[in-house]
Amino acid sequence: MFINVSAYPNYCAIGRAIETPIKNVLWAEVEGNDTLHISLLRRKKKHLIPHHYKGTFPPKELERVKTWTITLFRAAYEGE
User: Fold this and answer.
1) Is pLDDT above 50 for 43?
2) Among 4-8, 25-29, 40-44, 71-75, which is the least confidently predicted range?
3) Which residues have C-beta within 8 Å of that of residue 23, sequence separation ≥ 6?
């Protein structure tokens, strides 16, 4: 299973789509009412390197982003 980091939320200011296997997700957190932080491993040559991303979304999307974050963790750590 893969995650496309910029696919949701659509307003994320990451800048480009980043795909990584779900097992490479380290952390995702909602800060305040409009900021999403995501940490994941990305392959660079033969090594996995941690990368940290931050994006914003409209405050009206807060509940959807929280739900997305919980679903992401379940998929990454519980295999759901």
Assistant:
1) yes
2) 4-8
3) 76
| DSSP string for 28-74 | EEEETTTEEEEEEEEEETTEEEEEEEEEE--GGGHHHHHHHHHHHHI
| Strands 35-44 and 19-21, bridge-based pairing | unpaired
Q: How many Å apart are CA 22 and CA 59, to the nearest integer?
A: 26
User: 3-class SS at 77?
Assistant: helix
Position 47 confidence tier, pLDDT thresholds 50, 70, 90: very high
Please identify which residue in the block is written with the tokens 């990584």.
Answer: 20
pTM of the model: 0.73
CA angle 27, 14, 41 (to 5 degrees): 40
